[in-house]
Amino acid sequence: MAGNTSAPGASVTSRVLAILGSFDAEHRSLTLSELARRSGLPLPTVHRLAAELVSGGALVRRGSGEYVVGRRMWDLGLLAPVQADLRQVASPFLHDIYAATLATVHLGVRDGAEVLYVDRLSGHASVPVVSQIGSRLPLHATGVGKVLLAYAPDAVREQVLGNLTRFTSYTITQPGRLVAELRQVQRLGYAQTHEEMSLGACSVAVPIRSADGRVVAALGIVVASLRRDRPRLIAALQVAAQGIGRSLSAERR
């Protein structure tokens, strides 16, 4: 929530940002009164600015009267270097993995205490997943999220460990157990989940590193079971991640 943006002197820009900032993964669709409450702005102000945002394509007003983020915001987001460059470079590698497995392939970056899905490939034969391009999910319950959490700053890890939400009976909600698993991710070079975000979906993921060794993204795949193909999937992901890392470094020279 944006805070006291209704205070005298608040700029139009800060008010617009407060309205847009009212949306998150748990609040994708909001009524006018909900927008006012979450943004901290007066209802008449929200009504006026929301109408302008709808006119400009930043918001969409559904027939029910609820507002959702418009396509224009997504198009602008794709221009951010971390997403545009990464998606463009990684795309061929994602397509190669998908063609070989027909499983859902994820490309994610850390956005605060969540994983932001920059790209995703899936088909009719893929295991159903809850992720979408542009969506955010918890770091502790997803394969790409665990990779990113393992290499996140201490403050981020502490924030996540203090709020381990349970999504299925298999979600890890014990801080000590998760810390041990994150250490294993750093030691082995990959993370895995077993039905921790949604039932019937297991995942494995690996880090993508920049030229200086920093983890800048994670590449993962979702399957029904990891019992038989885990070594093969890890090897394929690691080769792809190395290729993406090298390509990113070459692009930025």
From TrEMBL:
<feature type="domain" description="IclR-ED">
    <location>
        <begin position="72"/>
        <end position="250"/>
    </location>
</feature>
<dbReference type="Pfam" id="PF09339">
    <property type="entry name" value="HTH_IclR"/>
</dbReference>
<keyword id="KW-0804">Transcription</keyword>
<dbReference type="InterPro" id="IPR036388">
    <property type="entry name" value="WH-like_DNA-bd_sf"/>
</dbReference>
<dbReference type="InterPro" id="IPR036390">
    <property type="entry name" value="WH_DNA-bd_sf"/>
</dbReference>
<keyword id="KW-0238">DNA-binding</keyword>
<dbReference type="InterPro" id="IPR014757">
    <property type="entry name" value="Tscrpt_reg_IclR_C"/>
</dbReference>
<dbReference type="InterPro" id="IPR029016">
    <property type="entry name" value="GAF-like_dom_sf"/>
</dbReference>
<dbReference type="GO" id="GO:0003700">
    <property type="term" value="F:DNA-binding transcription factor activity"/>
</dbReference>
<dbReference type="InterPro" id="IPR005471">
    <property type="entry name" value="Tscrpt_reg_IclR_N"/>
</dbReference>
<dbReference type="InterPro" id="IPR050707">
    <property type="entry name" value="HTH_MetabolicPath_Reg"/>
</dbReference>
<dbReference type="Pfam" id="PF01614">
    <property type="entry name" value="IclR_C"/>
</dbReference>
<feature type="domain" description="HTH iclR-type">
    <location>
        <begin position="10"/>
        <end position="71"/>
    </location>
</feature>
<protein>
    <submittedName>
        <fullName>IclR family transcriptional regulator</fullName>
    </submittedName>
</protein>
<dbReference type="GO" id="GO:0045892">
    <property type="term" value="P:negative regulation of DNA-templated transcription"/>
</dbReference>
<dbReference type="GO" id="GO:0003677">
    <property type="term" value="F:DNA binding"/>
</dbReference>
<keyword id="KW-0805">Transcription regulation</keyword>
